[in-house]
Amino acid sequence: MSVACGSGKSEADKAAQARAKASNMAAAASERKAETQIAARVKANELGQIPVIMYHRIIEKPPPGDDRTPAQFRAELERLAKENYVPITAAEYVTGKIGIPAGKHPVVLTFDDSSPSQLTLDGMGNPKPDTAVGILMDVAKKNPGFRPVATFYVIRDLFGMAKPEEQIQVLGWLKDHGFDIGNHTRDHLNLLGKDEKEVEDQIAAGQSLITTLIKTPPVTLALPYGNQPRNKKWAMQGSAGNVKYDYRGVFLAGYTPAPSPYTKDFDPVGIPRIRSKEKVGDCVKFCSAAWLDWLNANPNDRYTSDGNANTVAFPKFKAPFVAAPFANRALPY
Questions:
Q1: How far apart, in whole angstroms, are the C-alpha atoms of residue 125 and residue 132?
Q2: Cα(220)–Cα(273) distance, rounded to whole angstroms?
Q3: Which letter does DSSP use for residue 223 in this model?
Q4: 3-state secondary structure of 265
């Protein structure tokens, strides 16, 4: 009798497990349907292109080149906010951790050369209002949902700070406020044509510069002048002395929007960036004002979020372009 009772209990357990499994499957199917409906409603395309914008100094009287005035920088940020862009960091981009609201578009704001015009702290540890960070924080305050985050590619001239304590303060402030710090090599040497040792020495020295101060290794590298070494892989992985580096992405200096990290087109050893500039000269086609116009005119080619960081949503016919590592997150509609 005891064996029969035990057998009966086991059958009851199996039946309960089957009902629970069926219920879970039904709930999952219902959730999937709801997610697909949201993706379709906002015309999500998480295989679309992402603008990665490159900035240098933000100064009142910039010489010809890549520097911008505070007014120009503010105007571009305000345009991005108005056009439903949400800043993400370079680290979030290359690792595929893009968690922004449904219907919004990611943009990566990057700053090269760690200039004092990008970030200078006042005596109370707050960004001065006319610096890039001060302007970004102000625009974000006036535009809820516009995340005040960016990636700073630093060199040894760390925001004009000479003392290690001051350098720790400024890098620590960035880290504590959700900003991303990337490597731009220590001395900003052109790596084009350099041998493997020279390339690795410069990148490892930049890596050490950052980790000595804040103990957090950078996830990405921006190449000085956008020039790749003879072997592109030297920029991704290498070592010098006891310092090793292993990056998830290497950024160039132009000239197009970047592919989604979820597509087969994504190439971590050479990610394009867009210079911040109005439509003049070669920038009529290849800088930020021109590319933002193009993305607005071609919304089906732009990355649009479904609002769920755990899925990769896109129109069904784009399915052949999904990169294999993200196939299990695919949400075609």
A1: 15
A2: 13
A3: -
A4: coil
* Exposure letters 229-259 (e unless 16+ CB within 10 A, then b): beeeebbbebebeebebebbbbbbbebbbbb
Spatial separation of the C-alpha atoms in residues 280 and 277, rounded to whole Å: 8
C-alpha distances (whole Å) from 106 to each of 81, 86, 97, 177 are 11, 5, 11, 19
Is residue 202 within 8 Å of residue 234, measured between CB atoms?
no
Q: At what angle do helices 196-214 and 164-176 cross, to 10 degrees?
A: 80
Cβ proximity of 124 and 70 under 8 Å: no
Q: Are 74 and 139 in contact (CB under 8 A)?
A: yes
How would you class 224 by CB atoms within 10 Å of its CB: exposed for 0-12, middle for 13-18, buried for 19 or more?
A: buried
Give φ, ψ of 228 to 5 degrees: -80, 145
The amino acid at 249: G
Label residue 187 left, alpha or beta by phi (over 0 means left) and psi (-120 to 50 means alpha): alpha
Q: What is the pLDDT along the chain (333 residues), one digit of tens a residue?
A: 444 445 556 877 777 777 777 667 777 788 889 999 999 999 999 999 999 999 999 999 999 999 999 999 999 999 999 999 999 999 999 999 999 999 999 999 999 999 999 999 999 999 999 999 999 999 999 999 999 999 999 999 999 999 999 999 999 999 999 999 999 999 999 999 999 999 999 999 999 999 999 999 999 999 999 999 999 999 999 999 999 999 999 999 988 999 999 999 999 999 999 999 999 998 999 999 999 999 999 999 999 999 999 999 999 999 999 999 999 999 999
Biggest CA-to-CA distance, the chain = 94
